[in-house]
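Readers of this paper often ask what the protein records in our data store actually look like. The remainder of this section carries one protein's record, kept here as part of the documentation.

:::
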Amino acid sequence: MRIDRRTLLGAGMATAVTAVIAGRAFSAQKQSYAFTLSDAEWRTRLSPAAYAVLRQAATERAFTSPLDKEHRTGTFLCAGCDLPLFSSLAKFDSGTGWPSFWRPLPRAVGTKTDYKIGVPRTAVHCSRCGGHLGHVFDDGPPPTGKRYCMNGVALRFVPKKA
């Protein structure tokens, strides 16, 4: 059997379409969370940018969040429900333009596979309200080797009291 370029490209496109459809079906599954609000309540509670990220899984533009350059000691909370998510001690400068951490606080976040761009990525969400925070990648520093690349608009920083 001879495989030509047209057959190979067709098979590749079919695989990509199947992955996107499977990803949409997976992401459409609803999960219940301890902190829930109606869509109208979320829109009232959050800024338009935070709503787009936390509730619609948008991504803020790189290098636009002041939290990317936040270097004080403290805690990063979910902007949706105020759950503590990351310690400033786990923050590092990834050079990506988004606040990045090598480890979340215990039981603070959940993950699921995201096919939004056509390839699988690991999306990170708040474990209490389900708000989309960003993605986690395997190119971070020791000791975890993880890079939790978070949208700054999905976070709120609380400095440690002196």
Q: What stands out?
A: The two ends are 73 Å apart (CA to CA). The chain has a mean pLDDT of 88. The first strand starts at residue 74 and ends at 78.
